[in-house]
């Protein structure tokens, strides 16, 4: 535990943060989904999102800045400077939970990517130190960083990213030594090594498809107003931007890991699970491993079943449906990240900024932030926090239903455009009820 009582490996607000009726919240959320679907069925009968026409060009002055070399270099330099600074804390800092390496790794990097990508676009792609190193190697060798030795296998798609994301959440939520410097440092070293080898073999497409953090950040950025078409910076509605998400094999695996691991984070702290683990003769480590896999696989199976149980007759096309509808889970993932990690990000994020001034735990104040205090305003307003959490979950599911509906009326046969959505609606309701139950039970 950190000095302020946070577990840096994971942290959510549980039932103590939610002074409202769980039954009322679950009933309201279910009603919101059903009403949304009914309204969509009556009023939204033709597709409204088209990646080839949606959005308008950003103002010329803004596009000239964003597309300039100095702007890209500035972001790369900032990302690499932070990488070196935090790397120094990881290598030369003390093996204490107050080492800022843990806060940057678990809070800024993992949770902080979500709001940054929502507001600014694909942030990790812009600041990724592995991309920067790969670019430097290419400049020195005279090669093109966009091209590797081999073509990236299309059949792999995003599956390597899904595996990488699972490796992270396993370290964060299950591994018993997740707040010891050695194992976390080794994990990051392994990540950097795999990314550099992958970039050398397959070029930058490897980062777009297989880097777990770039895939995560880019997916979340699809809910931002910033998009591109033929290299032109666009401003368009977040749902139109989301609909333009490229479909690659394994996309639904990525969202299943993101959603399933967040649900497991709540479940593992629930009273029922804690009592079961304590009363079992089986190792808690083994039980948590099984539960994490079960949550991720379970979410994937429920979603796959909801998308594949349609009137579509082509078996090959049916197997493609989970990936074609996977973008609709992105707003749900964002909603649950807000619900589960909002106070954690705000408060432990501040604590991390304070600790960054003293990376070697020797009383230094390099950044001038060591004497700041954490503001616990959110925790002091539990009703507001509860409302934000529940509304985030409901909004995420409603937006997911809208995204799925627009995709369904584009790709499903006319006779199945509504009835074909019913299994997915049932899956969405199951996610809503289960997610809110776990949010209250945590």
What share of residues is helical? 55-70%
- The helix-and-strand class reads mainly alpha
Strand/helix succession:
HEHHHHHHHHHHEEHHHHHHHH
Distance between the termini: 18 Å
Number of domains: 1
Total number of helical segments?
Answer: 19
Instruction: Report the mean per-residue pLDDT as an integer.
Output: 89
What does the oligomeric state look like here?
Answer: single chain
Shape: globular
Number of beta-strand segments: 3
Summarize the main sheet.
Answer: 3 strands, antiparallel
Strand arrangement within the widest β-sheet reads 1-3-2
> DSSP strand (E) fraction?
under 5%
Rounded Rg: 22 Å
Low-confidence stretches: 1-6, 11-17
What's a quick, concise take on this entry?
With 442 residues, this protein is mainly alpha-helical. It is built from 19 helices and 3 strands.
């Amino acid at each position: 535990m950190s000095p302020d009582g946070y577990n840096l490996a994971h942290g959510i607000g549980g039932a103590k943060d939610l002074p409202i009726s769980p039954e009322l919240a679950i009933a309201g959320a279910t009603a919101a989904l059903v009403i949304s679907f009914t309204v969509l069925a009556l009023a939204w009968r033709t597709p409204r999102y088209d990646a080839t026409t949606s959005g308008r060009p950003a103002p010329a002055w803004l596009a000239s800045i964003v597309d300039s070399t100095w702007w890209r270099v500035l972001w790369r330099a900032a990302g690499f400077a932070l990488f070196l600074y935090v790397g120094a804390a990881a290598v030369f800092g003390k093996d204490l939970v107050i080492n800022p390496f843990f806060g940057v790794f678990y809070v800024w990097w993992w949770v902080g990517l979500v709001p940054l990508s929502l507001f600014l676009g694909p942030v990790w792609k812009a600041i990724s130190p592995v991309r920067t190193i790969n670019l430097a190697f290419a400049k020195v060798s005279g090669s093109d960083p966009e091209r590797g030795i081999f073509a990236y296998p299309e059949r792999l798609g995003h599956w390597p990213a899904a595996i990488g994301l699972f490796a992270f959440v396993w370290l964060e939520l299950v591994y018993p030594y997740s707040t010891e410097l050695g194992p976390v440092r080794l994990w990051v070293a392994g990540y950097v090594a795999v990314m550099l080898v992958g970039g050398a073999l397959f070029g930058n497409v490897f980062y777009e498809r297989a880097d777990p953090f770039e895939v995560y950040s880019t997916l979340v950025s699809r809910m931002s107003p910033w998009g591109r078409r033929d290299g032109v910076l666009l401003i368009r509605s977040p749902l139109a931007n989301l609909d333009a998400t490229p479909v690659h094999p394994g996309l639904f695996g990525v969202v299943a890991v993101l959603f399933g691991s967040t649900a497991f984070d709540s479940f593992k702290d629930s009273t029922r699970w804690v009592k079961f683990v304590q009363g079992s003769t089986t190792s808690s480590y083994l039980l948590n491993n099984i539960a994490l896999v079960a949550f991720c696989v379970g979410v994937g199976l429920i979603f796959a079943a909801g998308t594949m149980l349609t009137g579509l007759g082509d078996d090959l096309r049916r197997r493609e449906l989970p990936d074609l509808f996977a973008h609709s889970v992105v707003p749900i993932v964002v909603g649950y990240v807000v619900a589960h990690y909002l106070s954690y990000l705000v408060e432990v994020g501040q604590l991390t900024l304070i600790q960054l001034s003293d990376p070697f735990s020797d009383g230094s104040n390099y950044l001038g932030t060591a004497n700041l205090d954490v503001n616990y305003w959110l925790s002091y307003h539990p009703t507001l926090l509860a409302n934000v959490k529940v509304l985030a979950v409901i909004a995420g599911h409603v937006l997911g239903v809208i995204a799925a509906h627009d995709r369904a009326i584009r790709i499903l046969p006319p006779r199945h455009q509504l009835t074909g959505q019913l299994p997915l609606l049932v899956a969405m309701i199951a996610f809503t009820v289960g997610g809110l139950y776990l949010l209250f039970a945590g």
